[in-house]
Design brief:
Blueprint lengths: L4 H15 L7 H24 L6 H4 L1 H30 L6 H25 L7 H25 L2 H6 L4 H18 L2 H4 L1 H4 L23 H4 L3 H4 L9
Length: 238
């Protein structure tokens, strides 16, 4: 059975339930909140990619649309890379992160097949087919959405508090995540989509400037791929 769009939206609402509260000061609550914000942004980003499948964008603006679509894959891969390299090592033990790890592994092949198709279209090897893109997405979306929802339950604040994980360990994890993100991120490709798919929030993602209604990011981050960002949920009004 196909993973219905309404089911995706229902799962997204479950994630939003963890993400809509104000930024917590308590680290045990913050861990789940920050993960929820990340998951919601990634799915909001996906919805913007998906909505263009049956428009003229993949053909008439292929370079920009495919750049946008491939960046979504990179965003997801970076998120999982940081989880595997940093977060799981801090959480496990005592939390068992093996299920999340197995879900990452299950995602690898269908996500890679989808990404290879995007590359094939980019290089002219294959023509764009909305039906093929949708079929390939059906192979990873159910796994991804189940993973995103289940992982938030794993990070329930009461569960974290009841474990032997100390607040200092969680604070160290937060610092290590930020450090690793700076090491592997391309600021011009990896930061803008988080900001443009954060629902207009001013408290996430963590960036070294103050987010406001009138200032979202420095132009040197936005302009290198400005053609991509026309497809974002909240592109800058230049």
């Amino acid at each position: 059975m196909a993973y219905a769009q309404q089911t995706l939206l229902d799962d997204l609402e479950k994630m939003r339930g963890f993400a809509t509260v104000p930024k917590p000061q308590d680290i045990y609550t913050w861990v789940q909140w920050e993960m929820a914000r990340t998951h919601v942004a990634i799915i909001e980003f996906w919805l913007q990619v998906q909505k263009q499948f049956r428009t003229t964008a993949p053909i008439e603006d292929a370079e920009n649309f495919l750049g946008f679509a491939k960046q979504w894959v990179r965003t997801l891969e970076l998120h999982h890379q940081i989880e595997e390299e940093i977060q799981f090592l801090h959480l496990n033990p005592p939390l068992d992160t093996s299920t999340s790890h197995d879900q990452h592994t299950a995602l690898l092949t269908p996500l890679r097949v989808y990404h290879v198709y995007l590359e094939s279209v980019s290089t002219g090897i294959e023509p764009w087919s909305a039906s093929k893109a949708e079929t390939l997405a059906q192979a990873f979306l159910p796994i991804l959405m189940h993973h995103f929802v289940e992982e938030l339950h794993m990070l329930d604040p009461e569960r974290l508090c009841a474990s032997s994980i100390s607040a200092d360990t969680l604070e160290a994890m937060r610092v290590s995540v930020a450090t690793r993100a700076k090491e592997i991120a391309d600021p011009t490709a990896d930061i803008p989509p988080l900001i443009m798919h954060n629902g207009g929030a001013l408290d996430w993602p963590p960036v070294p400037w103050v987010l406001s209604e009138t200032f979202k990011m420095p132009m040197e981050l936005y302009l290198p791929h400005k053609g991509w960002w026309k497809y974002a949920a909240l592109p800058l009004n230049l």
